[in-house]
Amino acid sequence: MITTLLVVQFVLAALIILVVLLQKSSSIGLGAYSGSNESLFGAKGPNAFLAKTTAIIGVLFVANTIATTYFYYNDRDASLVDSVSFPIEESVPSAPEAPKE
């Protein structure tokens, strides 16, 4: 479960970085590569859409962080060694006898 949440965390981090870089800023940034097709996003362009997407991904990122912390905290006492079974020998071998002279 924790592995899945960590993978989702990395994907959300990459998505939020991408969405923030695509937004318009005072400098052009990567917003210049988003294209000029503004009819897809409405009259105001992609700014409102990207701002809402950033907010949604940010909330998902925080919720995933809290969930990962919760599950990691609950599994802190579990150990991989506890789940491994070691073969127990019934008898202990004795030391070889000393040679008689």
Question: What this model shows, in words?
Answer:
The protein is mainly alpha-helical. Helices cover 53% and strands 0% of the residues. The protein is built from 3 helices and no strands. The chain has helices at 2-22, 46-74, 80-83. The chain is rod-shaped, with a radius of gyration of 29 Å. The mean pLDDT is 77.
Shape: rod-shaped
β-strand percent reads under 5%
Distance between the termini: 66 Å
Mean pLDDT across every amino acid position: 77
- The secondary structure category is mainly alpha
Give the total of beta strands.
0
- The percent range for helix content is 40-55%
Number of helices: 3
Task: Provide the low-confidence segments as ranges.
Answer: none
Sketch the topology as an H/E string, one letter per element.
HHH
Rg for CA atoms: 29 Å
Oligomer: single chain
Biggest sheet details: none
Keywords:
101 residues; mainly alpha; 3 helices; 53% helix
